[in-house]
Design a protein that fits this description.
alpha+beta; OB fold (Dihydrolipoamide Acetyltransferase, E2P); Trna Endonuclease, Chain: A, domain 1; 2 domains; six-stranded mixed β-sheet; five-stranded mixed barrel; SfsA_N; SfsA; Sugar fermentation stimulation protein homolog
């Protein structure tokens, strides 16, 4: 995934979860933050951030804040990026015959529904085709502590709900997974943030015990791009 028109800036403050005050070439601007999470460990006054210029020139906030520098590395905090890079990855790998984003299941919309067709031979000896069905929920991870990624950085009822939907889907014969897109380099594992969201952690461990696969997507991160480089299944 490649951004257009990236500008380097200095972070000043974040009055609310939607906007931030930054400095670009000595001028203070109000920009949109493409992440409603806390990001308090990342958005520290004086840190370097990266902005993408909005395509709509009449928008009140002329830029979107999409990445931040911390400890010598760039961390992408764009909450829309994980689904985009996972879609790119799934289509590029060619593992599935069908990839459908935003799939309605139960009372939720799961991020991806996939199908794999496989040949089978029935009792009549006539070749037939069967379909394996997959559901994948995607989560972006930006909270890193001592070399480990943690999710979420703020309580998320929606996140726990999706995990429970996946657990239910296993019982109905689906192959299911929750995929964590690690939006910074040097991290290879994500754990549930039990302190911040014990309900999500409970749903995570219940899902894993029920057979929901845990996937970690490692990424190459620059100021103007985010690409998956490796898939680790657990």
């Amino acid at each position: 995934m490649k951004y257009k028109n990236i500008v380097k800036a200095k972070f000043i403050s974040r009055p609310n979860r939607f906007i931030a005050n930054v400095e670009v070439d000595g001028n203070e601007l109000v920009v949109h933050v493409k992440n409603t999470g806390r990001c308090k460990e990342l958005l520290i006054p004086g840190c370097t951030v990266y902005l993408e210029k909005a395509e709509n020139s009449e928008r009140k906030t002329p830029y979107d804040l999409v990445a931040v520098e911390k400890d010598g590395r760039i961390i992408n905090i764009d909450s829309q990026a994980p689904n985009k890079v996972v879609k790119e990855w799934l289509l590029c790998q060619g593992e599935y015959d069908k990839v459908q984003p935003e799939y309605k299941f139960g009372n939720s919309r799961i991020d991806f529904y996939m199908e794999k067709r496989r040949a089978s031979v029935k009792q009549s000896k006539k070749a037939d085709e069967e379909v394996d069905c997959y559901l994948m929920e995607v989560k972006g991870c930006t909270l890193f502590i001592d070399g480990i990624g943690y999710f979420p950085d703020a309580p998320t009822e929606r996140g726990a709900k999706h995990l429970r939907e996946l657990t239910d889907a296993v019982k109905k014969g689906y192959n299911t997974s929750v995929a964590f897109v690690i939006q910074g380099e040097g991290i290879t594992e994500v754990r549930p943030n039990e302190v911040t969201d014990p309900d999500f952690a409970k749903a995570f461990y219940e899902a894993k015990a029920a057979g929901v696969e845990i996937v970690f997507y490692l990424c190459k991160v620059t100021d103007d791009s985010l690409y998956i480089t490796q898939e680790i299944r657990s």
